[in-house]
Write a structure and sequence with these properties.
Protein name: Free methionine-R-sulfoxide reductase
Oligomer: single chain
Helix content: 25-40%
Enzyme class: oxidoreductase
Distance between the termini: 22 Å
Organism: Bergeyella zoohelcum
Largest sheet: 6 strands, antiparallel
Strand content: 25-35%
Radius of gyration: 14 Å
CATH topology: Beta-Lactamase
Pfam family, one: GAF
Strand order of the largest sheet: 3-2-1-6-5-4
Order of helices and strands: HHEEEHEEEH
CATH superfamily: GAF domain
GO molecular function, one term: L-methionine-(R)-S-oxide reductase activity
């Protein structure tokens, strides 16, 4: 387990915080520790509706507080249930622009009991910054988040 995984695990296992507080602390840690993570947030399924609702996040405010399944990268991941790495958002026809500064995005689903309950969404102001290590870290994180949901 890497040092950042240990710190994330500590946050998620904290008995004193509620889930919202834990997820906000996760966003804050990722934002502080990984310089090319410029917007970090969680979206969660809105009950039985086929839409995502913005949860805890760190970064600039966004107009995208509710995202229908299939719309944008987050909406695509809600349908596919697979991690989606976008090296250059300008090459994606289904991209929902949150900021003119965003150059790349990674979205990883949170799967619990075989169902997509949400996802983590990270935007970067750098073209093609996300590595296999980022993907592995975020997939591990989403597995851990699923355990506390």
């Amino acid at each position: 387990m890497t040092a950042i995984q240990q710190r994330l695990s500590f946050i998620l296992q904290s008995p004193s915080d509620n889930i919202e507080d834990k997820l906000l602390k996760v966003c804050q840690l990722l934002d502080a520790e990984i310089e090319y993570y410029n917007w970090t947030g969680f979206y969660f399924r809105n009950g039985d509706k086929e839409e995502l609702v913005l949860g805890p996040f760190v970064g600039a405010a966004t107009d995208h507080t509710v995202i229908p399944f299939g719309k944008g990268i987050c909406g695509q991941v809600a349908v596919s249930n697979e991690t989606f790495v976008v090296p250059d958002v300008n090459e994606q026809s289904n991209y929902l622009s949150c900021s003119i500064d965003t150059k790349a995005e990674i979205v990883v689903p949170i799967i619990k009991d075989g169902k997509n309950i949400g996802q983590i969404d990270i935007d970067s102001h750098t073209h093609n910054p996300f590595t296999d290590e980022d993907k592995a870290l975020l997939e591990w994180l989403c597995e851990e988040v699923a355990k506390i949901m």
